[in-house]
Amino acid sequence: MLHTLQQSLMALDPGFVWAGAMLAALAYALRSSRREGLDARTAYWAGMLAIVFGLWGGHLLGMVYYGADGRPLAWLRFWSGGQAQYGGLIAGALAVLLFLKVRKISLLTYADAIAPAVALGVAIGRIGCFLNGDDFGRLSHLPWAVQFPSGTEAYVDHLTQGWITPADALSLPVHPVQLYATLVWLAFFCVLVLYRPNRSGLRLALFAILQGVGRFAEQFFRGDFQTVLGPLSLTQLISLLLITVGIGLWWFRSREKASDIAASPQHLNTQIGYSPLL
After folding, report:
1. Residue 272: phi, psi to the nearest 5?
2. Are 200 and 261 in contact (CB under 8 A)?
3. What whole-number percentage of the chain has pLDDT above 90?
């Protein structure tokens, strides 16, 4: 059944799926912001900055993973080459942080509203990775293992390893790790949506912990796993850092007195001259 599903999906353009993932994330960020009484215009521009700088950051870290394409100013060409999720996450977060700081708006309040949208975007985006045959899984003989055609990263890797020959039409069977990630991130999305903390920053902290744990575990199923420090990959090292940051933020915010908590979203909007767009 999964083979039939794969054949149907492979006819789709991964670019459309990735674009749809960004649009879905932005749309949900706006919906979440309105529901929590935040200014939708601020959420929109924060989301747009996160997308643009996220693509650029993902491209820069992708150059570390996959190398440059040799073109002039390759580091600026964020629309080409491989993308690394953590590069996009870090660059997008820094852009939003700077934007909100310049506007003197509460970072944690808006980050809490946007966090589920990021999880939704990642869940959809991983389907595009599946269609493109990148971020592929380890060899597998499970019933739901999949094979990728010529031109995909999985096929090229297996050809380079000498496991297949140019005469073979498909790669060896591998874990559909991209679809595993889609299911996991959809679960993370649901958890973040259902979690209603009484203090700003706690949902962001939970997102950081889930992101770190999810990406750390995913690496054990990846066929392109490369260690950089002992048995750990660069992605796993960043994941451990993110988990630590998430736990630290959770500990700090959960122990603050109620009187020290930032003003409510409605009060924040009044202070900066906005009224919620319902």
Report:
1. -95, 5
2. yes
3. 56
Burial class (CB in 10 A: 0-12, 13-18, 19+), 260: exposed
Q: Which two tokens stand for residue 73?
A: 């100013």
Non-local (6+) Cβ contacts of 165 within 8 A are 159
Give the pair of three-digit tokens for residue 223. 């066929």
Token code pair at residue 201: 């920053």
Domain ranges, ordered by start, for the chain: 2-138+175-271
C-alpha separations of 194 from 21, 113, 128, 189, 190 in Å: 21, 12, 26, 9, 6
Summarised one tens digit per residue, pLDDT across range 222-244 is 998 889 899 999 899 999 999 99
Which residue has better confidence, 135 or 75? Answer: 135
Kindly give, in sequence order, each residue whose CB lies less than 8 Å from that of residue 109, ignoring residues fewer than 6 positions away.
Answer: 36, 38, 200, 262, 265, 268
Q: Which residues pair with 218 in a beta bridge?
A: none
Note the pLDDT tens digit of each residue in 243-264. 999 999 999 998 875 444 444 4
**Among the ranges 66-70, 190-194, 225-229, which has the highest mean pLDDT value?**
190-194
